Amino acid sequence: MIGRLRGVLAEVGEAECLIDCAGVGYVVSCGARTLGRLPAPGDEATVHVHSQWSEDAGPRLYGFLTRDERRAFTTLLAIQGVGPKAALAVLDVLPPGELAGAVAREDKAAVARANGVGPKLALRIVTELKGKPLGDVSFAPTAPGMHVEIAPPPPSITGEAVSALLGLGVAEVNARRAVDQALIRLESKNGGDEAELPAVIRAALQELGR
Question: What region holds the Holliday junction DNA helicase RuvA C-terminal domain (predicted)?
Fold first, then answer.
């Protein structure tokens, strides 16, 4: 079973990428958010991989830039009715930390924003993820009859920048991709220091205009 690939990023498509590892090209299916954060073709890339086998399609690899994203993906796959396509769609709109927050708030509407995920499946996802770890965040179920107020996670620069782009009419997947690319570019420019929100929004708008 393949758990990680490190090699030269040869190609990037709409739903997959090709990674050349010592002369062997691996086709890796990825969500839009992951594809948008990959380096430029020709550069070295590392992806954490979930391997799956089916009689119809044979081996299939699904790639993520972090272990938390891969862990959240496999947790989603354990839910009845959630296949790889739906799991990737959920993580495109809700990275692990944000998904955990949505589960804690029982915010099925946030989950239903994922492409191909209807209200019934969103409710099942929120219900079954209660108490399960999603990356480094998990929310334990409360005892019967006990009511616990769970504060939502503090807003992140990524979330605020995405919200600003959504307010300008940008599609959510495109907004997240632009913000992720902007953060990578700004952190490289600033030597790893965190960028301020206005700079992130401006850089994301420049990414959208490319």
Answer: 158-208
Give this prediction's pTM. 0.65
Burial of 47 (0-12, 13-18, 19+ CB in 10 A): buried
User: Would you state the structure tokens that stand for residue 132, as one six-digit string?
Assistant: 């399960």
Count of domains observed in the chain: 3
Phi, psi values for residue 45, rounded to 5°: -135, 150
Question: Could you identify the residue written with the tokens 């086998």?
Answer: 53
How many other CB atoms are found less than 10 A from the CB of residue 150?
12
Quote the CA–CA distance of 20 and 24 in Å, as a whole number.
5
* 46: nearest Cα among 79, 81, 21, 22: 21
- Nearest C-alpha neighbor of 182 from the set 166, 201, 165, 209: 201
Q: Which two tokens stand for residue 75?
A: 């947790």
pLDDT in tens, 67-123: 889 999 999 999 999 999 999 999 999 998 889 889 988 899 999 999 999 999 999
Q: Kindly state whether residue 142 falls inside one of the protein's structural domains.
A: no
Q: Which residues contact 54 (CB under 8 A, 6 or more apart)?
A: 60
- What is the DSSP annotation of 123-179? HHHHHHHTT--BTTB--PPPPTT-----PPPPPPHHHHHHHHHHHTT--HHHHHHHH
- Full domain range(s) for residue 99: 68-129
